[in-house]
Amino acid sequence: MITLTPTQLQRLNSLTFIAGVGHPTSNGHTACLMSAAALVVAIENNDEAGYQETDQLQCVCSVIRKLGIIINDSFQNKEQRKKWAIDTIPKIIGTNISHEVKQKRAYACADAAVRKYAVAALLKAGLQSEADKLAALDPIINQKTCNIAKKAASASYAASYAAADASNAAYAASYAASYDDAASDAAAAYASRAAAYAADDVADVADASKITILQELLDTCLAITE
Predict the structure, then answer these.
(1) Which of 38, 165, 201, 212 is positioned for an S-S bond with 208, CB 3.0–4.6 A?
(2) Cα 42 from Cα 50, distance rounded (Å)
């Protein structure tokens, strides 16, 4: 986590935050979470003139990046998006710590998808037995528990979209554990995306909104640092 300087904060406050990819240095002066984070890094490095508009940033974990993008794009109110983004940017810079940390975050996404989101959706559908099976699973913390959860969620695939998405999240997290390269990054990111899909399914049956649910997951992932 970093602390925004007055210059960085002033620059961010001058931008309009949008869904999709923002363009901070174009005439519209728009931004999304990631393009604004890239601008902050450029200012930090005294290289705003050399800033390249992008929603990808090497210093941000692929799991964190994907969750952040999904939350950014889920806001309907621009001012709420802007406040959230400015609060979140300092937290995500520097999160690309190691393959091991990224993997733990992917497991955390799969765990939430299987043991929370899918369970809630199954209960709402009146499928108590299927929900109990997933709720009784051990936390997903390694490839063994991930594969067990993947199979269990797959068994409820036809009963719930959330269970299907949860199974996909577990599959992606398991795949990411097998590699330490770009393919691993993509798979880990997909684990968070699939978890977000499951959260989208359960947002209709939970008291919390999709943004609140995903913010809790993002906070969980941010807390994983070793």
Answers:
(1) 212
(2) 8
